[in-house]
Amino acid sequence: MLSRILCSSVFQKVIMAVTGLSLIIFVITHLSGNITLYFPDGTPFNKYADFLASLGWLLYAAEIGLVATFLLHIATAIQLKMSNSKARPVGYKVYQSKGGPSKANLSSRFMIVSGIALLGFLVLHIWQFKYGPGIEQGYVVDIDGKQVRDLHRLVIETFQNPLYVAIYVISMVLLGFHLRHGFWSAFQSLGMRNPALHSALYKLAFVLAVLISLGFLGIPVWIYLNSTGVAS
Ligand code: HEM
Q1: CATH of the domain at 134
Q2: Nearest CA to ligand 1 atom 7
Q3: Measured between alpha carbons, how far is 88 from 71 in angstroms, rounded to an integer?
Q4: Share of the chain above pLDDT 70, in %
């Protein structure tokens, strides 16, 4: 009985929705902190990063929760994809939106592709910044008499490289597509069927995806343009 519920596509869609919405909350929080990277002075960003590091076990608990949410989101997506492929071994010849709540579009068809690309981006991103050089490697700055990791310098140096700027820009555009469909579809999976709310959520998903995508995407572009003297 329990295994039947856990394997049902309705339950799996609810898991996708809840984990997806939690990840959107993380992304918005992350962007709010990273907004300080638009400032010419690195102190606010380094203070923010040091504040996070000072949370100690609370940060570890949040990181474990975040990793678990990502893994559950990915594992459930694979399960859903596999059961869909079993139900329809031969794919559609032509994709067409049936209108109304279907809204099949570019982003809905590319959820798997954009999801895999975003996973690749995350591996590179965390390796570069979270596990990148720290105090021992000389990335250190004095803030209010305290020696803290100069994460700002690492971010600025990374985005002097046009290859990384391009990778980030492409990844953030994909993030926008993924969020646009994911946000709207999460509410569908949670049973939101009211037509007025439905149309409002569809528009909100678009606005949210554009704001988040542009907010992140602007950081590497802004830093790169500043380093080349175009924006200064
Ligand atoms: C221009 C865009 C971005 C910049 C400049 C940026 C910057 C950073 C930096 C500097 C860190 C290291 C924080 C630390 O160690 O204290 C970090 C960590 C992280 N970032 Fe980003 N980020 C960006 C976009 C994203 C996006 C779009 C996602 C998710 C889809 C993301 C997910 C993460 C995760 C999961 C961590 C590890 C958090 C932790 O374990 O504490 N980042 N980011």
Answers
A1: 1.20.1300
A2: 34
A3: 26
A4: 85
126 alpha carbon – ligand 1 mean position (Å): 7
Give how many domains the chain has, as a whole number.
1
Measured CA to CA, the distance from residue 174 to residue 117 in angstroms comes to 8
Q: Which residue's CA is the nearest one to ligand 1's atom 23?
A: 216
Which among 170, 213, 186 has a CA at the least distance from the CA of 77? 186
Sheet strands (E) in the chain = 140-143, 146-149
Task: Read off the pTM.
Answer: 0.89
| Measured distance CA(53)–CA(158) in Å, rounded | 21
Run of H or E including 163: helix 162-189
State yes or no: pLDDT of 6 exceeds 80: no
Give the integer Cα–Cα distance in Å for 151 and 132.
Answer: 9
- Compute φ and ψ for 89, nearest 5 degrees: -60, -30
Q: What percent of the chain lies above the pLDDT cut of 90?
A: 68
Q: In which domain, by residue range, is 11 found?
A: 2-90+103-228
